[in-house]
């Protein structure tokens, strides 16, 4: 069960799960990024994802990847400034994970971010979806 | 224009084929109310997602368009095609009228037979592609695309002026349900409420069910709940299947009966997304993509549809002129393209000569010119998808004749990256006949 209150959202229908810096482990704050169930549903069956490799620097708002369904192409926008730590290789092999588990196994990239822009909370995102809000669950 | 709720259905562009449209604005609302199918409530209850198709709110998918596509290839799918336009042509000169109004010789088909045809402009551009069913000696049903309902109806009415025939739009009263897939026949036969009135012509044995002997592109009259039902062995998926024309008021009941009859056979409701990928694999053109007013039949590989052996018909002069004019610059022609990997080449992507072309031109004085030419597109994709059945990208495209031969390599610009594709024969997918 996804705890939506732990997630942040963007108007581009992406979700961001923040992990704080860990001084002991020496890790910087990171963010895992995926697309919302609403976005996955609107795209239809995802058949191909093109994700940035580890080490690639990303800039807030820039297009850094693509999510293709049979019918359309969705762009992956970077929701933060930072550097890609890891892309989800499993989702490259099995793009249907984006549909079956968008908030879990269907995550797309994990990035180390330098600064956190203003993101939507769950209630904000629900409000953005309006009548279609229930489809997120 | 008739004053009906369908009249804003004039937009010929199916929105489901537009990339990028779906993710941009969650709160977008259509500017005009969409026409609802008589089956709309059935689709809502089934959890369908909807799309605006030529002004109609139609199911785009119920759950997974890939699963729906597979079901049609492997068992069966049921489609609501009530957006299609049904135009009835009746009268002593109905056959002669259709011979004049359409490109094919419709007078030559037998009662019960169906024929694919084209409605041409005087310049031989394509107003619509359609299927014509002969219901009786002087009675035809013309089925046009939803987006062309009023263009087709208007052209037919205008061309009927000097013929003793009526042209009637029956679209609002008619629902169309398609059952497509290898199990389609068993499913339609299993609906207890469908009664076939006549055996199809040439049925050799009355112990056989009428659908056992019904040939592809033939039709048969039936009854459902005491009302006329018209069953045709036609479709747009590359599979065996049936299209059932039923009074709109009975559509929901017939749909439910078909779903019940289909359950043991793996029948699933299928939306327009899978219909598009199925027809594309089967190499079938879609108006607004492969066909349009600026497309000549021969360019689209439909050169055999116009029948120049018959009498006068709209578009004939232009076709004869094109055939006689050896110096005419040939237009681009429709081809099938296959690629490797997983990236689909989609509608409106540009096609170029492959990067290696002309690389060894050396000191050839034409090299500079060739290099300049290489920068210009040689074609344009009209439809494309990662083929669910074949697992690789397939596309239909118009290319310069020099690039149309089977085996020719081209490069398609897929959002900034040029990927290799190769011309192949259509269709991409052909079912195994039993």
From TrEMBL, chain A:
The glycine cleavage system is composed of four proteins: P, T, L and H. GO terms for cellular component: cytosol; glycine cleavage complex. SUPFAM superfamilies: Single hybrid motif. One of its GO terms (biological process) is protein lipoylation. Residues 30-112 form the Lipoyl-binding domain. The modification N6-lipoyllysine is found at residue 71. The glycine cleavage system catalyzes the degradation of glycine. The H protein shuttles the methylamine group of glycine from the P protein to the T protein. Keywords: Lipoyl. It comes from Subtercola boreus. Coiled coil: none annotated. It comes from the Bacteria. Pfam families: GCV_H. Binds 1 lipoyl cofactor covalently. Its cofactor is (R)-lipoate. The keyword Lipid metabolism does not apply. Signal peptide: none annotated. Belongs to the GcvH family. This is Glycine cleavage system H protein.
From TrEMBL, chain B:
It is an enzyme of class 2 (transferase). InterPro entries: GcvT (IPR006223), GcvT/YgfZ/DmdA (IPR028896), GcvT/YgfZ_C (IPR029043), GcvT_bac (IPR022903), GcvT_C (IPR013977), GCVT_N (IPR006222), TrmE/GcvT-like (IPR027266). NCBIfam families: gcvT, PRK00389.1. One of its GO terms (molecular function) is aminomethyltransferase activity. It catalyses: N(6)-[(R)-S(8)-aminomethyldihydrolipoyl]-L-lysyl-[protein] + (6S)-5,6,7,8-tetrahydrofolate = N(6)-[(R)-dihydrolipoyl]-L-lysyl-[protein] + (6R)-5,10-methylene-5,6,7,8-tetrahydrofolate + NH4(+). Substrate binds at residue 243. This is Aminomethyltransferase. The glycine cleavage system is composed of four proteins: P, T, L and H. The glycine cleavage system catalyzes the degradation of glycine. GO terms for biological process: glycine decarboxylation via glycine cleavage system. The gene is gcvT. SUPFAM superfamilies: Aminomethyltransferase beta-barrel domain, Folate-binding domain. One of its GO terms (cellular component) is glycine cleavage complex. Signal peptide: none annotated. Its EC number is 2.1.2.10. Residues 40-308 form the GCVT N-terminal domain. Residues 332-429 form the Aminomethyltransferase C-terminal domain.
